[in-house]
Structure to design on (143 residues):
């Protein structure tokens, strides 16, 4: 009798473990990490991840800065992922602004557009963010 109970309990435990593993795998594929990428073309800055594509023409850029990333903000619209802040945010420094910032980002490129809108981009690796900043400086110097 005790052997049957042990076998039944062991089976239930194994099924529970398999269910938990299955749920974790499902969640991982349902909400995968969304890596923010930025590239520079001859005429514009392109920012992407799996769910969005944004383009900013160099002629529309008023100024850029390389600054420490600020996470003190209020989420307004779009999607706030666990690994990044993508969408429209608000804080006392920039007001309402567009954010494409990885949570791993320590520094960001802060872009002021001519229409008085800020765009903040912080890539996963700071060296990539700095490279983006330097590339933007080169393109802006040309135009």
């Amino acid at each position: 009798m005790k052997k049957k109970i042990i076998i039944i309990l062991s089976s239930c435990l194994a099924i529970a473990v398999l269910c938990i593993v299955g749920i974790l795998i499902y969640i991982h594929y349902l909400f995968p990490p969304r890596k923010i990428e930025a590239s520079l073309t001859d005429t514009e800055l392109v920012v992407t991840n799996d769910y969005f594509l944004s383009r900013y023409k160099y002629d529309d850029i008023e100024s850029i800065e390389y600054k420490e990333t600020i996470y003190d903000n209020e989420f307004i619209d779009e999607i706030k992922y666990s690994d990044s802040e993508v969408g429209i945010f608000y804080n006392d420094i920039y007001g309402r602004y567009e954010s494409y910032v990885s949570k791993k980002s320590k520094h960001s490129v802060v872009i002021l557009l001519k229409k008085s809108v800020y765009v903040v981009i912080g890539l996963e690796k700071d060296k990539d963010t700095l490279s983006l900043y330097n590339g933007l400086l080169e393109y802006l110097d040309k135009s």
Residues 2-30 form the longest helix (29 residues).
